[in-house]
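Researcher: Dear colleague, please comment on this protein.
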Amino acid sequence: MPNYTGKTLKKFLPVFFIGLIVFSAGLILYFILKYGIDVPYMDQWEYVGFFDHLSKGTLTFDELYRQQCEYRQIFPNLVFVGLGALTRWDVRYEMLFSFVLALLVMYNVYRLSNILKYDAPWQKWLLLCLASLFIFAPIQYENWLFGVQIEYFMPIACITTCMAVIYSGLRNVLKLIFCVLLAVISTYSSVNGLLCWIVVLPLFLFSEKAAGFFQNWIPLTVWLFGTCVTITFYFTGYESPANFPSPFEFLKHPVDALLYLMGLLGNPFRMVHALKPIIVVGVGMLTLFVALCVYVGRYFRDRVLLFQAMPWLMLGLYSIMTGGMVMTGRLGFGLFQSLTSRYTTYTLYLPVALLFLIYVISTHLAKRTGIKEWPLLLLILMAAFVVYVKADTFNVAVNDLKNYHHNIRHAKAALHFVNYVPHETCESKIYLVHFDELRQKANTLNKLGYLRPPLAESNLLQNITEADGRAGEGGAFNALTKQNDTLYLACGQTNPNSTGNVPDAILLTYDDTLSRPVVFTLYNADSLQWKKSFSVNSVPYRPTYIRAWAFETETGKALRLKGAFLLE
């Protein structure tokens, strides 16, 4: 009976772990569908020109190829334009595209996991389940909910696809062709995409199925020639971005540079929102990776060990080298900038690589020492540690994701009134710089029909919405206080809306000569308790009544708050 139960459990475990993988991926899909917002945000406003020129028939290759920050991202740009043309630039489809790229990475990791030897099938699926907790981690919330971050997913999708192709049964000539094409796509997706040429080459040279072919001078020359040509074209006419720190900052502050890099490497394994512990985790992971590299180097002549370890060594090296590139370009922003959510998409593949490397080397140790329990023991320890950390930080990551969503949601409400309320006076902003340029681009998109809902055509509340006159249900306008000769402070509280959230914005209106409410300013932070200062000069009619309204962008409805104050 016990033996029968053990066999049943072993058969059930792979199904259980596969279910957890599907659940972790499905949870991210749920977050995208629930919290993704259909509005351009921050850097996405730089792409308005693509759609303007596309509508006029003047979009050129040079415009798509042109350097943006440190990137020449022609392939993400093609995705933006293609999806935008099909969906009238609903940026949520870009988020879904990023999710599909993550699925591709997960599939490639699965393909690569098949080259390992396992004592039981459930061990492979446990490793894949642990890897999925990183690949589909909510801590990447900036990249899940910000469509433009496709450029962060494309290089690793290309690199892991190259790895899967090299370890596949394809003809070697086809492997070379596919990998060259993928390396070009990787290069012209993000600046760290250049690493594809570097980390894929060792797999060509040491893979059992391809080594003989690629150690021949012709395929090797093709690969090296492609590397040189691609990099040469990439950096021809390249200019360091004017508003970014000097790339040589690390030479002036080498200790800070090392700490920044450790912060980047430790952030995917974040256990607390504090820099020092995350740096310690980064040091630990880098030390462990180096130790595993030394072990593989020590037994370099063991072709089976090298064959199984090489893809994971290169995957970890990709994250470390990418971390070094980010550190070089961003160190001047300060050490805490290393904890930025979006960078975890670059560096999470170090812990993924470590999971499989530890298993590979523990299997090798078991054969050398005769202690067969090594793989099982280390696998259980890794699983316990990863699950503990991920469970401990899950709520924090999800709360950060929700806060990011709320910020964009409130900023979208401000965008709705961008022609009437100065964007720089809003609490949550859809774009942090060049507000006049934002207004111009917003009106361009509005004419194309790419903003949903369209911009307000008037600041008369009755023309903007079906204003609901049931005062008091949305909350209260509690006070209007004179601060000095020109400045007033309005304050109050609102009730949660039908979805349990803070209203998108609080609109302040004055009554014109026909007693119509006119929007003149708004409050759009994520708080039920609100305060808003305004200049008396922004109200052209006095005496007049100041009123407050809870506004929902998607429905276009405003609910008047209880209370009104006479401004004399």
